[in-house]
Amino acid sequence: MRINTEWTDYIVLATGFGEKLERWGQVYLLRPDPQVIWPANTALNKFKDLNAHYLRSITGGGKWENLKPMPEEWIIGWRNLKFIIKPMGFKHTGLFPEQATNWDYMINAIHLVNRPISVLNLFGYTGAATVACASAGASVCHVDASKNMVERCKQNIELSGLKNANVRYIIDDCKKFVEREIKRGKRYDCIIMDPPDYGRGPSGEIWKIEEQVFDLVNLCTNVLSDKPLFILLNSYTTGLQPTALYNILTLAMKNFEGTVQADEICLPTEEKNMILPCGATAIWQVK
What gap in Å lies between CA 102 and CA 267, rounded to an integer? Predict the structure, then answer.
């Protein structure tokens, strides 16, 4: 189990009945969470400072119910890094705070090697991992199928004081981009993959994680440099446990000298003795 406890701008206040109550800066949100299968001690939707509640629809999807005035978007920080938060569709806010444990790992790993490091961030979303790696001095290629998410990554980079960082922004299907990078002979020291359960590329390409993740990881080994530093693979799919990710990286990296570690990633909560599970991460790293 891996938990980062450095947050001051974010906290999980309470959980229960399929939902989590969170503070994002000075804004309080209540969102669904499929991992929360226990009861709440109190009615979370009655929290007096609650700004917005994401309500699931019985026909699928859902919408935000605004309860108190709040900004359309705002900024929170982790260490010296800054991120824009905005309630969006599918209960998203533009950031996954539990990933701070991985940002910490990436920053430390890059700092420890005394050489230039290049990073490929696939399914890069709004770019928190890109910001973290750039802050450590790495050059980063940020790839996502959504133009809006790539634009938000650029904003997060600038907010974090990194506008002069060496970041390449790509709007593309991740698999097709990697295939082209192989043909171009492009190589990377680090690869980050944070794939969704299901998604579509910019040209309608369909992604299903259980069916395609191993092939993508295996494909990505062809763009690794002669001195790879790490590959980091995330999953929020409840059916893909840390051991499954461990096996994927172990098989894909069988021809490389390194070790694999896989863990559940979690968030602390303000509830006594309660920890919120948030997915799984596996890391292959050089010995």
Answer: 12
pLDDT tens digits for range 108-143: 999 999 899 999 999 999 999 999 999 999 999 999
Tell me the torsion sign for CA atoms 88, 281, 99, 67. Answer: positive
- How many folded domains does the chain comprise? 2
DSSP assignment, residue 227? S
Mark whether 78 and 102 lie in a shared domain. Answer: no
Sole residue written with tokens 């694999």? 260
Q: Give this prediction's pTM.
A: 0.95
All residues at 6 or more sequence positions from 197 whose CB lies less than 8 Å from its CB, including other chains: 208, 209, 236, 237
- CATH label of the domain that carries residue 184: 3.40.50.150
Strand ranges (E), 114-215: 118-122, 139-144, 167-171, 190-193, 198-200, 206-208
